[in-house]
């Protein structure tokens, strides 16, 4: 086993250590904080790449390093880390995207007072996320999972003076907590059923055949409970409500956490415990996988519809993320694990690119986020426009040059060959059209047409911000080299199958279908929104064309399908009522009981006091009076007169005589 | 009638009782001393009576005791008188009812 596997713990440890050091610095030491954070991230990246290299050696490489954490009685709790293609690919993606975002934040957060705290939290998040990826034990994964959730809370609510940010952070934490509750119950059940929480342990791990057999029929429920955690963390329906609100955080946070990495943790989790989901599969299908597909499909479609009705630049991207994650879940569910993971990695790159581009636009428009107030930024912010366009094309799934296109191809291919039903396939095709549609809408609103209110004084962002954009854009394009069907290197790497170079496979029928759909989506977007952008001469855009055409539908989508309000009326209202009832119980019932006992104690005290005062004192007083009386009597006998004493002697002697006579 | 032992004892007892009565009921200190002397005399009488009516001949033990008792009675009377004089010098009274300094 190479040295890197035993030292794999360094990869999350270095950014975490950097975070702790930065936290101990004064907030004026900005350059020190940046240096520490970026050096930590570069170190993590270097270690990730050196971890990546051994996995290229053999197909199906998997190397674990397990050790005992502590023992209780006879049992030992073992944890460890694992290095396999899944983990290695994720490590490199997270470290690289993280590094780009760190560099971007130097420029974006330059005016912020809490600059050092930001980098401390970013490093902390980076370390925690890397820990999630390498964990070989479900417990260790859960620990880092929770740390990632904490980092997300701290970063969403970074601007502590904004009440909306604090509320959004709270909402994110609580919503993911609900998922984590199911996750934790699943972990407990898994531990009870299979006796180990290690994934791979030389045959004894819970993902290996022996462990899965030990679980038996309960494996489906365990898988679904673990899926609850993924639903919460990856923002699937019904726990997606926190992700759009999480846009209250700074844009680099949105890019890193809520686009590229943290939300990917849920998809990663499903991919990691995929053997559990697919155990006992008949024709590649199990009940838990059907649930995964259903939720993913619902999420993908729902989110892309809602994105059509949003006007905040980041909210559109947030819903886009939710939709893409749904797509990844569908892919995992139909059996395309490698396809889903490839899309995850590619998504990490291009979604970070899009968010950073949005950040650049927001920065350039002086903190304006409403797309109705932007327009015509194409000429004012050329680099941002170009990189954003590349990101948009990748997301829409334009094939040939853009990685997103190829990965989407793979997913559509997987859904087309699902034996249970073709419904997910058609839904995902509709999703492709919708994705292209809302991204085109966003592009037109922001970059095309006449300049509106905020774009008057817009300017291009500084190089610290545009460099990462360019790097990520290049990655998005270059990445497609390993993704093409002609040379499916990444697919082969992830699944362990050998990859052959075959130029003929470059062109496939499905390719043309999706190309046609993407073109339809973009074209529809230009038709619907293009004219509005071109003709508008007002300061802010007039009503959205869709709003003009279908006001009721648009209103429904603009209000996020009223889901937040539904939750507020039901779940939140119920928990508030439960809180009120508990408060009443506590204040009146339990408090009354306690006061009752206190009263009993008081009663006892009164009784005791009275007994003491009336009973004992009086008794003692009476006794003393009696003794005094007796003393007075007896002292009266002492008259001091000798004749009295003589008389006493005579009487006593007489008594003795009588006694003597009587006894004899 | 020939005197029997019981007669002497009765007389002795009567004498003792009269002496006791005198000691207990007279106020003057000298009179208490007289009473004490009478009690001693009664005791002497007892001794002699018991000697007389014990089987004769016998050494005159009872008589000797009576003589010793008279001698001691004399000494004791002297001491008692000295005590009375000392008390009179201090308290200017011989009324024992007034000697109650030890009252408590």
Q: Could you please describe the fold and organization of this structure?
A:
The complex is a heterodimer of chains A (664) and B (104). A two-stranded antiparallel sheet of chain A has the order 1-2. Chain A is an all-alpha fold. Chain A is built from 27 helices and two strands. In chain A, helix 16 (337-364) runs antiparallel to helix 18. With 104 residues, chain B is mostly helical. In chain B, 73% of the residues lie in helices and 0% in strands. Chain B contains three helices and no strands. In chain B, helix 1 (5-25) runs antiparallel to helix 2. The A-B interface holds A 635, 638-643, 646-647, 650 and B 20, 23-25, 32, 96-97, 99-104.
Q: What is the number of helical segments of chain A per DSSP (H or I, 4+ residues)?
A: 27
The number of helical elements of chain B comes to: 3
Major β-sheet annotation of chain A: 2 strands, antiparallel
Order of helices and strands of chain B: HHH
Shape of chain A: elongated
Q: Return residue spans of chain A where pLDDT drops below 50 for at least 5 consecutive residues.
A: none
Tell me the helix content of chain A.
over 70%
In whole angstroms, the N-to-C terminal distance of chain B is 55 Å
| Shape designation of chain B | elongated
Termini of chain A, distance in Å?
117 Å
The largest contact between protein chains, plus residue counts on each side, is: A-B, 10 and 13 residues
| N to C succession of SSEs of chain A | HHHEEHHHHHHHHHHHHHHHHHHHHHHHH
pLDDT averaged residue by residue of chain B = 92
Beta-strand content estimate of chain A: under 5%
Secondary structure category of chain B: mainly alpha
Radius of gyration of chain A, taken over Cα atoms and rounded to an integer in Å = 38 Å
Strand content of chain B: under 5%
Low-confidence stretches of chain B: none
Q: What is the total tally of β strands of chain B?
A: 0
């Amino acid at each position: 086993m190479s040295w890197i596997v035993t030292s794999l713990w360094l990869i999350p440890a270095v950014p975490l250590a950097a975070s702790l050091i930065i936290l101990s610095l004064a907030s004026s030491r900005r350059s020190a904080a940046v240096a520490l954070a970026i050096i930590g991230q570069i170190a993590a990246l270097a270690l990730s790449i050196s971890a990546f290299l051994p996995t290229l050696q053999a197909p199906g490489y998997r190397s674990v390093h397990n050790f005992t954490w502590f023992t209780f009685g006879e049992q030992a709790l073992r944890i460890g880390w694992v290095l396999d293609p899944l983990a290695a690919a994720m490590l490199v993606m997270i470290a690289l995207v993280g590094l780009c975002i760190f560099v971007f934040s130097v420029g974006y957060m330059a005016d912020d007072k809490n600059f050092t705290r930001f980098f401390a939290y970013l490093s902390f998040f980076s370390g925690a996320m890397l820990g999630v990826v390498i964990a070989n034990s479900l417990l260790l994964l859960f620990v880092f999972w929770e740390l990632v959730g904490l980092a997300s809370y701290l970063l969403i609510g970074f601007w502590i003076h904004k009440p909306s940010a604090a509320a959004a952070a709270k909402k994110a934490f609580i919503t993911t907590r609900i998922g984590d509750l199911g996750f934790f119950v699943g972990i407990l059940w898994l531990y009870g059923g299979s006796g180990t929480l290690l994934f791979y342990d030389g045959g004894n791990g819970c993902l290996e055949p022996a462990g899965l057999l030990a679980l038996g029929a309960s494996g489906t429920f365990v898988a679904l409970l673990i899926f609850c955690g993924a639903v919460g963390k990856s923002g699937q329906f019904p726990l997606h409500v926190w992700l759009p609100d999480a846009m209250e955080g700074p844009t680099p946070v949105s890019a890193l956490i809520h686009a590229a990495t943290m939300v990917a943790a849920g998809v990663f989790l499903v991919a990691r415990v995929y053997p559990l989901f697919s155990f006992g599969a008949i024709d590649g299908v199990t009940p838990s996988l059907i649930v995964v597909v259903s939720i993913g499909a619902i999420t993908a479609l729902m989110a892309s519809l809602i994105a059509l009705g949003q006007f905040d630049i980041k909210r559109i991207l947030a819903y886009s993320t939710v939709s893409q994650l749904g797509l990844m879940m569908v892919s995992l569910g139909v059996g395309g694990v490698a396809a889903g993971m490839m899309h995850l990695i590619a998504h990490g790159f291009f979604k970070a690119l899009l968010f950073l581009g949005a950040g650049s636009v927001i920065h350039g428009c002086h903190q304006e986020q409403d797309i109705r107030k932007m327009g015509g930024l194409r000429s004012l912010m050329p680099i941002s426009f170009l990189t954003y366009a590349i990101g948009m094309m990748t997301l829409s799934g334009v094939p040939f040059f853009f990685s997103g296109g190829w990965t989407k191809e793979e997913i559509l291919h997987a859904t087309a060959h699902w034996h249970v039903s073709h419904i997910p396939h058609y839904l995902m095709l509709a999703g492709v059209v919708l994705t292209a549609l809302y991204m085109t809408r966003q592009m037109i609103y922001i970059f095309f047409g006449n300049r509106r209110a905020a774009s008057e004084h817009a300017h291009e962002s500084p190089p610290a911000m545009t460099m990462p954009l360019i790097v990520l854009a290049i990655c998005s394009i270059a990445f497609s080299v390993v993704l093409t069907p002609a040379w499916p290197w990444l697919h082969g790497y992830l699944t362990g199958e050998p990859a052959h170079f075959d130029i003929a496979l470059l062109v496939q029928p499905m390719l043309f279908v999706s190309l046609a759909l993407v073109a339809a989506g973009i074209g529809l977007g230009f038709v619907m929104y293009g004219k509005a952008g071109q003709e508008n001469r007002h300061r802010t855009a007039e009503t959205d064309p869709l709003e003009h055409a279908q006001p009721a539908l648009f209103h429904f989508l603009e209000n996020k399908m009223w889901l937040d309000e539904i939750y507020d009326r039901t779940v939140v209202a119920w928990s508030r009522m439960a809180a009120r009832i508990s408060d009443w119980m506590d204040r009146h019932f339990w408090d009354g009981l306690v006061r009752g006992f206190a009263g009993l104690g008081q009663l006892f005290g009164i009784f005791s006091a009275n007994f003491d005062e009336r009973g004992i004192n009086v008794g003692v007083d009476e006794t003393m009076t009696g003794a005094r009386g007796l003393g007075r009597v007896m002292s009266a006998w002492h008259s001091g007169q000798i004749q009295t004493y003589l008389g006493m002697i005579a009487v006593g002697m007489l008594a003795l005589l009588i006694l003597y006579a009587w006894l004899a | 009638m020939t005197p029997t032992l019981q007669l002497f004892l009765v007389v002795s007892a009567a004498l003792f009782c009269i002496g006791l009565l005198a000691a207990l009921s007279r106020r003057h200190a000298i009179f208490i001393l007289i009473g004490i002397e009478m009690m001693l005399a009664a005791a002497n009488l007892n001794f002699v009576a018991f000697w007389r009516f014990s089987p004769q001949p016998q050494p005159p033990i009872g008589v000797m005791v009576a003589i010793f008792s008279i001698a001691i009675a004399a000494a004791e009377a002297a001491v008692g008188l000295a005590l009375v004089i000392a008390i009179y010098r201090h308290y200017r009274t011989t009324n024992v009812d007034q000697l109650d300094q030890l009252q408590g």
